[in-house]
Amino acid sequence: MENVKEIIAKNLVELRRSHKMTQQALAEKLNYTDKAVSRWEHAETLPDIETLCRVCDIYGVKFEYLLQKEQPPERNNPHIKRGDTGSKVVITLTAACTVWLIVTVLYALMWQMNPWTLFIWALPATCLVLFFANYLFFGSKIFRILSSSFLAWTLLLSVYVELLIRNSDNIWSIFIVGAPLQAIIILMENIKFSWGRKEK
């Protein structure tokens, strides 16, 4: 009789192949190495529950799906989530729009002070929302780099505008900080910096 580890490993392989995904592609989404994914699929080890839940989200299945020895056809399988990605996109866009709604309301309440810089500060706030949405829902390496980069540069832009209003001297030099920040963002991704979650 197959043990639970072997059943999960078999289902992980079938799910990955049915989604035409390589071990490397899955590893990047989860912030693990492809060797770790290979060990899961060979039933040598298993990831923690949180990672398995993220795998289920990526493939659009419920957690129980991983524990089934025999999988029913897709159209009859109640463990397959329908429209999951679409709802995550809607949640992400709603959160981003909420930032702009809050800023617009604040502007309307303080219009006599002409607080137009609120809209500048809404840019890094939106990037922060997108960064966390990607972390929670999608796990895309490219989107993580882009959202981190836009966050850094829009934050610098916001500070620049605030200093410009106050007639500060040599304020353009603040953008020099952006170069090392951008380098750090890219380097962290290239070395697969995973905040302690990547298998060694």
Description:
- By secondary structure, the chain is mainly α.
- The protein folds into two domains: 4-76, lambda repressor-like DNA-binding domains (434 Repressor (Amino-terminal Domain), Orthogonal Bundle), CATH 1.10.260; 84-190.
- The protein has helices at residues 4-18, 23-30, 34-41, 49-59, 84-109, 117-138, 141-165, 178-190.
- Helix 2 packs across helix 3, helix 5 runs antiparallel to helix 6 and helix 6 (117-138) packs antiparallel against helix 7 (141-165).
- The longest helix is centred in the middle third of the chain and has 26 residues, at 84-109.
- The two termini are 31 Å apart.
Please tell me what the overall shape is: elongated
Quickly count the helices.
8
How much is the radius of gyration in Å? Answer: 22 Å
Helix content: 55-70%
Class per helix and strand makeup:
mainly alpha
Oligomer: single chain
Mean pLDDT: 81
Biggest sheet details:
none
Share of β-strand residues:
under 5%
- What's the domain count? 2
> How are helices and strands ordered from N to C?
HHHHHHHH
Number of strands: 0
First-to-last CA distance: 31 Å
Poorly predicted runs are: 193-200
